[in-house]
Design goal:
Strand content: under 5%
Radius of gyration: 36 Å
Length: 597
């Protein structure tokens, strides 16, 4: 191993001598580089290799390259790059090859090599990296797309990019993203060739050996890709994605028309198709506006366009009466309502339209739970409080087992200071299963704290402990303890704590809160703190190293503490803690002994 390391260090000598000779590094810095390189080399020559050692070595070499680059810029010296930088670059590539050869499954390592090649413009090396990467990970479409894009956009090789896409499609014959990017690449290639041909024609040059077939220039390759994909990939979403790509190119009108006709024929009942057709109306006459158009004319035109969109949506919800179709319609209306406008009339019209569509969807019983919430929010924002209450009640009737819907209704009633809040809480608890009802109980006790008497609130807390599941009751115990201390004082909270400790489960914060309360007292007694720590450790001693350390710190720092107890606490902690927690506890305990809190 030592011989190999020495050989590697000797290989560095020419570049280091050049660095010193040209004045980029001093003799002292060269020695420091050699020392660091020696240490790093020894780490990667061991039998038990660690990925972190390779990463650290690579990072050191990259930092060295960056430093050389900055010093070259500072002194204005740009020679001897073959002897200096290229030698380091070659070494980094070798390190990456060894690392990716050892840890082939680590995609991030491969991508780091790709990023390094791009940063230092190592095109030839990057081609080899992509070739190796795709041979090992052919099951990841994103990697094929990355390689093809690089071939097309950086190396300007449409043939290589096409070859990669065709290979990728053999592995992933039904991957929508691959087809979309292949489709985009062929259109980009067609656009590039059209521009080249135009430049030649403008310069009146003889095209000679350059041939520009009309099929390629008109995007026929992209049309073939689309037709092939359309047979394999089902769903309107793919057609719409391809159509949005085609719209980026101004020579694809016929192709766009074909995609649109196919979309309307195959997926006439898909909400996405109707959504697209409706939204198209917004763009229909956008190019007809002239400089003489007044502000009022623009508002009128926008109103007309939106009405045409809504007419298509109305036809859609009649033809495809589904929850998803209504969702598309309502989403469009909300988007238009949220758009900024200086016209109050247009804003009001959008609001009325949106609320009307919500009502129609509700009457059709095709409004989702999430949209009910949006409807209520919109009504509250527009100060239609009575209607908001009605809608929230209707939502809770339709989704009677949904905690979120009842929570929304109750929040509306609390906000509007309704007299029926208690009755509504009772109704909610009756309909909702006990598991998952915690948000309702926390909302109820929070409301009760500010509205009802202390006796009623305490009775509600005690009721919640019986009604919630054991896991959720732990949270309620914590809230109950906190409320008792705020409203009943220290003596009261001690009684409540003792009574609550009779029934498991508990949360760690429950005990921490009681410890904090005790420490806030003027006559803080270590006897009580020990009791609380012991109770907490019985429940969480095997999973919480911090709890043991806090207990030890308390014995050391409290006036009534007994430092001699720390040894036995440490011994118990070592027995109870599990797994990595033991190591964590030992290291922190050592720091504590050394005087670091």
């Amino acid at each position: 191993m030592a011989e190999r390391v020495e050989q590697r260090l000797e290989d560095r000598i020419p570049e280091l001598e050049q660095l010193e000779r040209v004045g980029l590094f001093t003799r002292k810095e060269i020695r420091a580089v050699l020392r660091k390189a020696s240490a790093l080399e020894y780490k990667i020559q061991r039998r038990a290799l660690r990925k972190e050692d390779f990463i650290n070595y690579i990072q050191y070499e990259v930092n060295l390259l960056e430093l050389i680059k900055k010093r070259r810029a500072r002194i204005g010296y740009s020679f001897k790059k073959d002897e200096i930088e290229n030698s380091i670059l070659h070494r980094v590539h070798c390190l990456f090859k060894r690392a990716t050869g050892k840890w082939k499954e680590d995609i991030q390592l491969w991508l780091s090599h790709v990023a390094f090649c791009k940063q230092w413009n190592a095109k030839h090396e990057l081609s080899k990296v992509f070739s190796s990467l795709l041979a090992i990970h052919p099951n990841k479409p994103a990697l094929w797309i990355m390689a093809a894009k690089w071939e097309m956009e950086t190396r300007l090789s449409s043939e290589s990019a096409r070859h990669l896409f065709l290979r990728a499609l053999r592995f992933h014959p039904e991957c929508p993203k691959l087809y979309q990017e292949y489709f985009r690449m062929e259109l980009m290639n067609a656009e590039k060739q059209r521009k080249e041909k135009k430049v030649f024609e403008q310069a009146k040059m003889n095209l000679g050996e350059f041939s520009y077939p009309e099929e390629i220039l008109n995007g026929e390759m992209a049309r073939i890709i689309y037709r092939d994909a359309a047979q394999k990939i089902k769903g309107a979403e793919f057609h719409l994605a391809v159509l949005s790509i085609a719209k980026l190119f101004d020579f694809t009108q016929d192709l766009q028309k074909e995609i649109l006709e196919s979309l309307q024929t195959r997926y006439a009942d898909d909400p996405l198709t109707w959504d697209y057709m409706a939204r198209r109306e917004l763009e229909m006459e956008s190019k007809q506006s002239t400089e003489q158009t007044t502000k009022q004319m623009k508002i009128t035109e926008m109103t007309q366009r939106e009405e045409r969109c809504c007419a298509v949506f109305e036809e859609a919800v009649g033809a495809v009466p589904t929850e998803d179709m209504w969702k598309c319609y309502i989403t469009f209306c909300i988007e238009r309502y949220n758009r900024k406008t200086n016209s109050q009339g247009l804003k009001q019209k959008r609001l009325e339209r949106t609320l009307s569509v919500f009502s129609k969807a509700h009457e059709s019983s095709l409004l989702s739970e999430a949209l009910y919430k949006q409807w209520v929010q919109l009504l509250l924002e527009s100060s239609q409080f009575e209607k908001a209450t009605e809608v929230a009640a209707a939502a809770s009737k339709r989704f009677s087992q949904s905690v979120e819907t009842w929570q929304m209704r109750l929040q509306v009633m609390i906000q509007l200071k309704s007299d029926d809040v208690t009755q509504c809480f009772e109704e909610a608890i009756k309909h909702v299963k006990s598991q998952g009802a915690l948000p309702l109980w926390t909302l109820w006790v929070e409301w009760s704290e500010g509205t009802n008497s202390k006796e009623d609130t305490e009775a509600l807390y005690q009721r919640s402990l019986q009604a919630t599941t054991p896991a959720e009751s732990a949270t309620m115990k914590e809230l109950y303890l906190n409320w008792t201390y705020r409203n009943g004082g220290y003596k009261k909270v001690k009684k409540v704590f003792t009574s609550l400790c009779e029934n498991r489960p508990f949360s760690l914060d429950f005990f921490k809160k009681m410890i904090q309360i005790e420490k806030e007292q003027e006559s803080c007694k270590m006897l009580h703190l020990r009791e609380y720590y012991e109770r907490a450790l019985r429940e969480f001693g095997s999973t919480g190293s911090e709890l043991w350390l806090d207990y030890i710190k308390e014995e050391l720092s409290h006036p009534q503490g007994k430092p001699e107890n720390c040894g036995s606490i440490h011994w118990r902690a070592m027995k109870m803690l599990q797994g990595d927690l033991v190591e964590d506890f030992v290291s922190k305990y050592t720091l504590l002994q050394a005087g670091h809190s």
